[in-house]
Design goal:
about 850 residues, alpha+beta, Beta-galactosidase, Chain A, domain 5, Glycosyltransferase, 9-stranded antiparallel β-sheet, 6-stranded mixed β-sheet, 31 strands
Length: about 850
């Protein structure tokens, strides 16, 4: 009863603070409470079958985070791995701890560093499982969704709900720090366990130090091993408590040392992404408190990738002088500002919840990596200073270049420019642009050279606070030179010498050769790393990626005024044709000697169809020529034939790979639904996109069609609901669908783009008419430069398609073949910047 009263008092205190801050804010500008629409539990339960590409859940997490925060802490659960990438599975029943970091939406287990676990158990033995990174199962408390809640920047849960041992846990966060409040029952054994080596992929080392006088526990953890890669990172933490310790101690493996103030451990092997099992360091600390009179305990936590001292500075700067309630309010306001970049009105409350939940997940990554003093640990293992910008990390390149990075270029161009500067800093320190970076570690996860279209799209869509000449130099190096980085042995473009010599990646350089599918790739990655350094995941698919990447290099070269480089890489952007088999009119893996791989059936629903492709097959990858759809359609037999094939393709929306149909729960098909705009049938884009956003997405825990991949899939929904999409990396082309909401406003730095949709509704996806700034338009696309300083798109929508609107060839969006000299112009038509 006393515990319940204490929690009620805490709730009243927070409510009062929220009311005061809200009242003050209302005197200035009445910002809408858009965070109220967000469900942070979205993506924590499988929303699709497990197709073998990271599970069927979104792999997100419900814990508190601010936009692009360094600290992303929250609950980790047991026993299942249904949502392994996020650490928290909605159908689990026990809490493993509250860890400080994770990669939201990633397809492999990751991070989950330094879990904290409140307990009332008497600490008489080491609390960790001898065979894993986790706490022993006897320490894991049950939880219930009836005693749990989450909103942006805040999470609470009752441990041991409905019992006398219930512990109320509440968490909130800043960019680099967090505060936890724990309400214990009246006991002399209220403890917090700090598992310094509790990372999900294991730890090669860790340390803890207990400072009884300062009421602090500090330490570090060294982990890595993301998706079976040899990357490494070291995270430092400071945990400061508001109550004196009545007891404390440390453990190393199964040895518990009461009264000990320091411990460390190391493991001789690299961490591996095997559910935390296998060789790993094991060390941690516990601190105990007397809660017989005062039930509430507060822990303030700061983190850094530089040092314990830097973690302490981060804590002092961001949470040192603020109480829990005010930090929670500040986090909420940060989300309202970020979500307010796009405001939608009308439609159903359920659709608004889905929209802002997806926008929320699109604004979590990349994560801040530099400290409050702007220092960060570089990819060369040295401390650097981010002068004039913020350094970011955790770029899910292969995923996010398609949709999330263009979205952030549009609505947060200054921050997106810092993303580019961060990638260029990574290249300067490690020698190469990242493909899929984790903290300050390179990895060879996925394929292609996605930093190129990331940089190009951010430039094209508004993020221009970086040096394009420096960018071109880095991009050209990666596109023309072979070599490995001293950072994790990383290779930017596998088989780049073969690609330059042949114009395609030969199938002999496929990591899957003589094997099948994703599992084979993972087995290959477990082999000695040198054996796979120059092997790409999917020879034909990688060729398509490189062709898109080359187009992106050409676009940035054009922006930098380097016409020679632009012409060279524009020519290379046509290399996709070298793996297009004209006899069957599909993309197909090809041998170095010239012949295509045989046997091969791109439409077979079996593993043979995915030979030569990463997480997809020939039927799905054939559409992945975003820079030049017009030439692709001619190769397919013309616009009418292409449209018929798209019709068959979209008979199923999320069929997994090894299928002749669409796999919208994964990235290679991101642009496919918008291709009808090029074949004169934009009403089918309107229908397919509307069907996808209404049937594959919702705000529930299972409301995602697959892994969110650090915001990529959520960003795809956001564009689909707005009725526009950036289909061509490195350009300002915006393809048009149809808006879900009657009104939307996108806030650019130079003005607001207003989207009005008369007649909008779930069952009215078809564009009847369109006016752009009052002028009638029959084209299902526009240049971003035309609206960068604001404008109005006025749609008239209906339940029946207007088959004549956007039908003519002249209405189609532009395609950029190697002969399109316009691709090397520095500025696009209508660009007023």
């Amino acid at each position: 009863m006393q515990q319940a009263k204490a929690m009620r008092r805490l709730g009243l205190t927070i409510a009062a603070a929220l009311a005061i801050v809200g009242a003050l804010a209302s005197r200035a500008v009445a910002a809408p409470d858009l965070a109220a629409y967000v469900n942070p539990f979205n993506g924590t339960r499988a929303g699709a079958p497990n197709f073998g590409t990271g599970g069927g859940a979104g792999n997100t997490f419900p814990g508190p985070v601010v936009p692009f925060g360094m600290i992303q802490w929250g609950p980790d659960t047991s026993p299942s791995s249904d949502n392994a990438g996020g650490g928290y599975a909605y159908d689990d029943s026990r809490i493993r701890g509250f860890s400080l970091r994770r990669l939201s939406g990633a397809g492999c287990e990751n991070e989950g560093d330094v879990p904290f676990l409140p307990t009332t158990k008497l600490i008489t033995r080491s609390p960790v499982d001898p065979l894993s990174t986790e706490f022993d199962s006897s320490f894991l408390p049950p939880f219930s969704h009836r005693d749990e809640a989450a909103t942006p920047g805040f999470y609470r849960v009752g441990l041991n709900p409905g019992t006398r041992d219930r512990i109320g846990a509440e968490l909130t966060a800043t960019t680099r720090a967090g505060i936890g409040r724990f309400a214990y029952p009246a006991t002399h054994t209220a403890s917090v366990l700090i598992n310094a080596t509790g990372s999900r992929t294991g730890d090669s080392g860790g340390s803890v130090h207990v400072d009884r006088a300062g009421r602090e526990v500090t330490g570090s953890a060294s982990s890595g091993g993301f998706c079976f890669e040899p990357n490494k990172y070291r995270i430092y933490f400071v945990a400061r408590f508001n109550r004196p310790f009545t007891a404390y101690g440390t453990w190393t493996r199964q040895l518990l040392l009461p009264g000990s103030t320091s411990a460390q451990d190391s493991a001789p092997t690299n961490p591996s992404a095997m559910s935390g099992h296998g060789p790993t360091a094991q060390t941690g600390a516990y601190v105990t408190f007397d809660t017989t009179k005062h039930r509430l305990l507060e822990a303030r936590i700061g983190i850094s990738f530089v040092s314990v001292a830097s973690a302490r500075r981060n804590l002092e700067a961001e949470a040192g002088g603020h109480d829990f309630a005010s930090v929670r309010v500040r986090a909420r306001r940060a989300w309202d500002r970020a979500l307010g970049k796009i405001q939608v009105a009308g439609g159903s409350a359920a659709d608004r919840r889905t929209f802002y939940t997806m926008l929320y997940h699109a604004l979590v990554a990349p994560s801040t990596f530099s400290d409050v003093d702007r220092r960060y640990m570089g990819m060369d293992g040295r401390v650097h200073t981010a002068v004039g910008y913020t350094q970011y990390a955790d770029f899910s390149g292969w995923d996010v270049y398609r949709t999330q990075m263009p979205l952030l270029g549009l609505i947060a161009p200054r921050r997106a420019s810092d993303f580019v500067r961060s990638l260029l800093a990574d290249q300067r320190e490690s020698g190469w642009l990242p493909k899929w970076s984790v903290a300050n570690g390179q990895t060879d996860v996925m394929t292609g050279d996605p930093a190129d279209p990331t940089i190009a799209s951010i430039w094209a869509l508004g993020g221009r606070r970086f040096n394009t000449r420096v960018a071109v130099a880095a991009m050209v190096k990666g596109a023309t030179r072979s070599g490995r980085s001293p950072n994790a042995g990383y290779v930017e473009r596998q088989a780049v010498d073969d690609y330059q010599r042949l114009g395609y990646v030969p199938h002999e350089k496929d990591a899957n050769v003589a094997t099948e599918g994703v599992d084979a790739y993972r087995r290959a990655m477990l082999a000695p790393y040198d054996a796979n350094a120059d092997r790409a995941w999917g020879s034909a698919g990688t060729t398509l990626e490189y062709a898109t990447d080359d187009f992106a290099v050409a676009r940035v070269a054009a922006a930098a005024g380097d016409k020679a480089a632009c012409r060279k890489f524009l020519a290379r952007s046509g290399n996709w044709r070298n793996v297009f088999d004209t006899s069957i009119r599909y993309v197909r893996p090809r041998l170095a000697s010239g012949p295509f791989v045989d046997p091969y059936d791109p439409n077979a629903n079996d593993p043979a169809s995915s030979q030569g492709f990463a997480e997809g097959d020939g039927a799905q990858y054939t559409w992945m020529v975003p820079q030049d759809p017009a030439t692709l359609f001619r190769a397919l037999g013309g616009r009418r034939t292409a449209a018929a094939r798209l019709d068959y393709f979209f008979q199923q929306l999320n069929s997994g790979f090894n299928s002749p149909h669409a796999f919208l729960g994964n990235e290679p098909n991101s642009n496919a639904a918008w291709l009808y705009d090029w074949v004169g049938q934009p009403y089918k884009t309107q229908a397919v996109v509307r069907r996808a956003i209404l049937t594959l997405f919702n705000s529930s825990p299972g409301g995602n069609p697959g892994n969110d991949d650090l915001g990529q899939m959520s960003a795809w929904y956001v564009f689909g609901a707005l009725g526009l999409y950036p289909p061509v990396p490195g350009t300002g082309v915006l393809a048009l669908g149809s808006p879900l909401f009657p009104r939307a406003t996108i806030r650019f730095p130079g003005g607001h783009l207003t989207i009005r949709a008369h007649g909008a509704g779930r069952g009215a996806p078809f564009v009847r008419r369109l006016r752009i700034d009052g002028r009638r338009s029959r084209k299902p696309w526009l240049w971003f430069g035309r609206v960068t300083h604001g404008g109005t798109l006025a749609f008239e929508l209906g339940k029946k398609p207007n088959r004549r609107w956007g039908r003519g060839r002249s209405a189609a969006p532009p395609s950029f073949s190697p002969r399109n000299s316009g691709a090397c112009r520095a500025n696009e038509p209508g660009d007023r910047r």
